[in-house]
Amino acid sequence: MRMNNKLDTDNVRVDPMGRFVVIRINAKLYKQHIIMRAADDLIHAQKNYDVIIDGNPESEIKAKFIPKTKDATKDDLLKVAYKFNTLLVSCCGKG
Fold first, then answer.
1. 71 has pLDDT over 60
2. How confident is the model at residue 50, as a pLDDT?
3. Which CATH code for domain 12-94?
4. Which of 73, 39, 72, 77 is nearest to 55 (CA)?
5. CB 78 within 8 A of CB 14
């Protein structure tokens, strides 16, 4: 069976103008302190992004990453989203 290499981006929205990427996070799976830790780890690793965390801690939290430079591409923003999702899972194991 051949697998499709396309990644699921249902929880990721990239601004068409390349101004930001928003990741929707299920707050029932990831608690607020885990989300904050993953966001903090990412902005320390990717110093050229700012982050805004918003939403309802009972249902859904959104992490919005905004590049500090104007030359970010859609691929750059998707890489940041994928890196954040990876950090989120990694931080979840740390408690």
1. yes
2. 94
3. 3.30.1360.20
4. 39
5. yes
